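pinging the channel bc i need a second pair of eyes. not urgent but kinda urgent?? the chain im working w is below, pasted from the shared doc
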Amino acid sequence: MHPDSKRPTVEYIDPIISAEIPNINEEPELYSLVSEFMIHGPCGAENMNCPCMVDRQCSKNFPKQFCNHSSVDNNGYPLYMRRNNGYFVEKSGVKLDNRNVVPYNKYLLKRYQAHVNVEWCNQGSSKKYLFKYINKGPDRATVAVDINTDSHQEKVVDEIKDYYDCRYLSAYDDIDDVLEQPSVAASMFTSWMECNKINKDARKLTYVEFPTKFVWKANHKLWKPRKIGRSIGRIHSVSPKLGEIYFLRILLNKVKGPKSFEEIRTVNGEEFPTFRDACYDLGLLDDDKEYVEAIKEASHSGTGFYMRFLFATMLMSDSLGRPEFVWENTWQLLSDGILYNQQRTLKSPGLTLNEDQLKNLTLFEIEQILLRNNTSLKNYNKMPYPDTDMVSSSTNRLITEELDYDIPILKKEFDRMFHALTNEQRNIFIDIMTTVNDKKGD
């Protein structure tokens, strides 16, 4: 809401909001996401049964009009750029172009991979719309109580008695009351740590061993020392896909007497940032070296695609405790064939790629395998994610040729030409480069 944060002109719209179908060759991932989540319809004459149809017209006013530039109409509403560039998406046998694109933000769409409608808001009524839901209070209604009678006699109306100002409370409105209940605030797990704070004997047991010496009092939400009987504790199984919850479960079988979450992930006086790191320090997880060796062995006979598929399979099977460790130790093997494929695709036999480009293209190939299996690198903690902009640049022949420099040769050429400059030319060159490096140029 600060004045410096406002965007007063339409020049700011296009970098933030897009209402166009991207180029499938330059941005394949974004094209797929827009096609799946941000296309409206088909509706209208092509599909009169579409839910948006009201009185035989689209209630969302699709399709929009083509527009070469973003602008704001007389009422303050934005008209997004929707060029007639020939890009289309086919849905239910109907070709839909930029006129049917729901406005979106590229970053948010890639981040959440879901329908995320982003609109430009520059009217005072936007604030009212934004805050009215949390400030208007619960639903209210005026209820009238009337008595049926066959008598035609004049009735005396007692408005105070017959009318009640009522408030309706739904399950959603009652959420605060629910969260304030002790049964929600305290659980068997959190009460276990509270018991460790006050009972020395409790600190000798792990969470799994706790029921052998203590009994859970559900009515009071606390643990009390067991007097009679025997009991065996058990923790529900947790999938490795859940990440930190899975590693927490492992620690609960080993750590005794913690009084907080921080103490659970503390080993020999050192507090680790994650439960996973604590598990590794305790030696509770494999170091994944066997998977590194498996990929190295496969590289002797397998193709690059086979090894990338093998790595993706390891990820999907949740076999890797530290996938980023395996990646860093095998990425050169996993990138086998990437350079050759780029040279063939761009028809540039002399093409070279630096380390970052090779890593990025390799990650992109692995991501495509995962996407075909309904998952993504984003689902694996600490695994790097490919830069789609870099992928687009790497697959563009003109950009690649322009950036395909032989750095050692260029450095020698620079040194030769620099020493050939006169004193005046050298001073001018130094002044220009200083201004550029300090970003002081206009």
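so The chain has a mean pLDDT of 82. and Residues 407-437 form one domain. — does that match what u expected or am i reading it wrong
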